[in-house]
Structures are given as structure tokens and as C-alpha cells.
Amino acid sequence: MDLLNTLVEKGLRRETPSREEALAVLATSDDELLDVVAAAGKVRRAWFGRRVKLNYLVNLKSGLCPEDCSYCSQRLGSKSGILKYTWLKPEQAAAAAGAGVAGGAKRVCLVASGRGPTDRDVDRVSQTIAAIKEEHQDVEICACLGLLSDGQAERLKGAGANAYNHNLNTSEATYGDITTTHTYADRVSTVQQAQAAGMSACSGLIAGMGESDEDLVDVVFSLRELDPDSVPVNFLIPIEGTPLAGDWNLTPQRCLRILAMVRFVCPDVEVRLAGGREIHLRTLQPLALNLANSIFLGDYLTTEGQSGKDDLAMIADAGFEVEGTDTTTLPAHRADAAAAAGAGCGGHGGEGGGCGPCGDAAPVDAAPVDAVPADAVPAQAAAGATVSAPAGTRESHAGLVAVRRRGAGTDLPPNA
Ligand code: SF4
Fold first, then answer.
1. Closest CA relative to residue 114, chosen from 159, 53, 166, 160
2. What is the DSSP string of 33-46?
3. Annotated catalytic, 124?
4. Does 272 qualify as catalytic in the annotation?
5. Long-range contact list for 177-182, CB < 8 A, 24+ apart?
6. Catalytic entry in 45, 142, 224, 355
7. pLDDT digits (tens, 9 = 90+) for 351-371
């Protein structure tokens, strides 16, 4: 397939595909799906080998957010029945983080609900970072605290935060449909503040919120331009009590096409398989490891993931290996650029809640070269693609989403 050969060659050169090529990946048929995964898998292995980085989420403060992000169970007026608690003490957060590290995580993502931190909140998070690093010197810390005010990124960097997560979530054109209390530009600004302060930026998307193929390509191209080191790809977890609770728009095949498109557009970036992988990819989860080089271990912010033990078994069974702390995640050209900039991820974009400019660096181990959302059917049909069986309904997916009742904020041990 000429399209796939072209995309592999571009991925190995870190060259941006055209919008038409990215859209064509999303419009491929089920007959072509394994070829798509194999092609994007070549790009993934060229830059990241068979390594899988594990990240662990610690929800420092849950629920009671004044913002109205329609996908989020922590939003203003949420009726989701999630755990609600205020700031964990540093030692409580460190204990939760320690469970993730013991499970194999090399990055801990410290997330707090809210529009953004106060300066006092930054103090709290700084103390938490110190408590975690006292026990685990090598662990990477990513903070995800919402919109940042002047000087806060620098303070977090000074406290030891290696990275900052803030997702774009969806295209600029549709942003106002999912959130009205802040803007897409606010989000871009916070990612840029984190980068300017020397932190590694983590910024991604949520698929499955009724967006079109064009919207998905828009947000991924915007991410490439913003150039985060890590791009979490969340698949909407339609949590009861949120406005999007009935949005079961994704199929496993659609999720794989989205991940492949992200890999082709952001070839040398840490593409992270984030929230919603269990409920949308289901038995096809292991195939996604050929596309993403990073996942969250265990539970998400307010919902439960599969057991950490099952995550590790899945990685081993699929022939991949957990990335150790002695290995640098990013390819040398990106890691060197980050080091020169002084840089060393999570939830204000779904439940798990960091593309690069072209250059001349070579891949490390050179490799050669459904249900479709209702509003995407016309695009796929127009492209001549095979349209899979319907994604499903709220009723057919009843029981797939479990609200988190263990770990941070409870007396029960965390899932890691
Ligand atoms: S995504 Fe973040 S800002 Fe939006 S409602 Fe949820 S916690 Fe609040």
C-alpha cells in the first residue's frame, strides 16, 4: 500500500505527513487494519524499540472542580459518585507513588482537580515532590495541576518537577463544545509556560467525544506544532453522571487507527496509551503496544483500570519489555534537546491524563522502511472504507466503567 510505505518513510525521517495522509489512515478499512498497525509499528520500533514506559497516576485532590469540562467526572455539579477529597498529605501521596514505582513505573503523575493551582497549592505539590524524591531519587515527576499563572511553572521546575501535563484534548474548532469555562488558547499557553520553564511538556487528546476525523487530525497537527515530548491518547471514558455518559462512539479498530495516525504524525514522541484503553480496545489492547510506547499502570484518576499485574502480563505476552530507569525514554536527538533546554503526565484531559520538528537524526535501530462515530460515517463511507459493526450503546456497555474505590483517598491499597 503506497500510503503506508510513504508514511513509514516519513516517520523514519521525522517528516510531517500531509493532512490528507493522516485522514487516509483514519479512513482505512478493517481489511487493511493489521497492515496499518504493522506500518506504524515499524516507526514505533525505530524510535523506541520494544520498550514500554510505565506511568503511575496519583490523584492528589479529587472532585469539586469549578470548571465544566463535559468529559470529566470531577466537574462542577458532577453526579458521578466518584471519590471526593481534598489535598493528600505529602506522605500519603508519597506512599501511593511508591506503590506505582514498586510496580515498575518510572514516572509518577501528580494530578489535582481545579482550574489551576494557587501559590499555596504549588507549595503543597513542591513538598509532595520532595517527599517522593526522598524515597525514589530516579523517578520522573510530572505535575498536572491545570492552568498555570505567572511564575508557577518556574517554581514547580525548581521543586523538582521534570514534566508538566496539560492536554489540548480536542480541536480548537470544537473546544467550546466540551468546555466553556476556559479556552483552547488558555491550554496552549500553559503548555508553552511549562516548556519555557524548562519542563518536559506532556500534552495529548481525548478521542470519542463526537469529533470528526478532521478534528482529530487538527488536534494532532496542533500537538506536533506545540512539540510536547509526550502525547497521551485518551479514549473517552463515558462516566455516568457526566454529560458525555452516553457517548460510546469508539470501536477497538477505530482506536487502533487513531493511535497509528498519532504515531505517524508524531513519530519520535512518547505516545502514551492513556485512559479508556481497557473499555474501548478491550481484547485488542496488546496490539496497541505496537503503536504506543508508554501506558499508565493500574488505575486512573476516578475510575479503575485493569490490575497492574495484568498490565505487566500483557506487555510480556505481547513481546515487549518494561522500560527501566537506566534507559532514556526519548530518542537521543530529543533527549539532548530537552537537556539543553533544562527539561528533565495525567488528568486535566480525561482520565489519564507528552511531536517534534523534522530533522536529520537517524532512528536508533533503523527499521526499513466498529463502530464508527455517527458523525464519522459519512467521511469513511465517502472514502470507500468498510464500516464496522456499531460501537454500542450505553446499555450494551453497562458495567465496563468502574468508579475508583481504592488507592489514593481511601484506606485500601492502590492498584499497581
Ligand atoms: S478536566 Fe480538570 S479543569 Fe476540567 S473539570 Fe476536570 S478537573 Fe476540572
1. 166
2. HHHHHHHHHHHHHH
3. no
4. yes
5. 177/70, 177/210, 178/69, 178/70, 178/71, 178/209, 179/67, 179/68, 179/69, 179/70, 180/68, 181/66, 181/67, 181/68, 181/69, 181/76, 181/115, 182/67, 182/115, 182/147
6. 142
7. 654 333 333 444 544 343 333
What is the tens place of the pLDDT at every residue in 82-115? Answer: 999 999 999 999 999 999 999 999 999 999 999 9
Average pLDDT of 259-284?
97
Mean pLDDT of the region 66-92 = 94
69 is in an annotated binding site: yes
**Is 72 in the active site?**
yes
255 is in an annotated binding site: no
> Which residue owns the Cα nearest ligand 1 atom 7?
113
The answer to whether 65 is a known catalytic residue is yes
Which atom of ligand 1 lies closest to the CA of 73?
A: 6
Ligand 1: residue whose CA is nearest its atom 4:
69
Grid cell listed for 288 = 496497541
Name the grid cell of 265: 504524525
Cα–Cα dist 203/229, whole Å: 8
CATH label, 17-341, candidates 3.40.30.10, 3.30.499.10, 3.10.129.10, 3.20.20.70: 3.20.20.70
What is the domain partition of the chain in residue ranges?
17-341
Structure-block grid coordinates of residue 127: 513538598
Q: Is 355 annotated as a binding residue?
A: no
The full DSSP string for 209-259 is SS--HHHHHHHHHHHHHH--SEEEEEE----TTSTTTT-----HHHHHHHH
